[in-house]
């Protein structure tokens, strides 16, 4: 049924035959309609559709968050390379102490090289943990990844080598991508 159907009891009032006297005066609306509104056709509109359970949270990882995850895996690769290089350097310096041709190299402390190798390994393990948990992690992981990105950028400023520049850029991008609204929406989404 529509408002145009003369048998619709909820429809607009039909025009009366002239001479019956119950016709509203000209300029006033018919009964049931407030001033300024025109009668519509069909049934009234439905109430707004509710969001699905979860409030519209993202179901797939946003592109920026996925990019931050890839950057963490790149840092893992760089840390593995750094760990191997520093460990190899520590062994080479330790072996060079017996050779008189490498006296300058033999004065370099091997303990510092081993310490840097261990630090690079720990940093790589931390990046591996963060990258592996991006799919299921909550807001605590987001904050940890944000701190990781900032610390990576700060630590990368000192050596400022090629690897330092790469770490600086990657650290800044990780912090920005995890800290933006897409990152917040992904890590604060409800988990069922």
Automatic annotation (TrEMBL):
Residues 1-25, 31-44 have a biased composition (Low complexity). The chain crosses the membrane at residues 70-92, 112-131, 143-160, 166-187. Keywords: Membrane, Transmembrane, Transmembrane helix. The keyword Membrane applies. It comes from the Bacteria. Residues 1-57 are annotated as: Disordered. This is Integral membrane protein.
């Amino acid at each position: 049924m529509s408002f145009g159907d003369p048998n619709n009891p909820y429809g607009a009032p039909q025009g009366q035959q002239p001479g019956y006297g119950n016709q509203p005066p000209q300029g006033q609306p018919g009964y049931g309609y407030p001033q300024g509104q025109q009668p519509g056709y069909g049934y009234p509109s439905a109430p707004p559709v509710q969001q699905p359970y979860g409030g519209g949270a993202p179901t797939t990882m946003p592109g920026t968050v996925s990019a931050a995850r890839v950057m963490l895996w790149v840092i893992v690769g760089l840390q593995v390379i750094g760990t191997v290089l520093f460990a190899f350097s520590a062994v080479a310096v330790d072996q060079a102490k017996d050779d008189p041709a490498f006296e300058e190299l033999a004065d370099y402390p091997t303990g510092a090289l081993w310490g840097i190798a261990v630090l690079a390994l720990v940093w790589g393990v931390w990046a591996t943990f963060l990258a592996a948990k991006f799919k299921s992690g909550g807001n605590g992981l987001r904050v940890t990844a944000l701190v990781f990105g900032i610390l990576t950028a700060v630590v990368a400023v000192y050596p400022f080598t090629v690897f330092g520049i790469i770490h600086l850029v990657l650290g800044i991008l990780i912090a920005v991508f995890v800290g933006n609204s897409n990152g917040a929406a992904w890590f604060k989404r409800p988990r069922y």
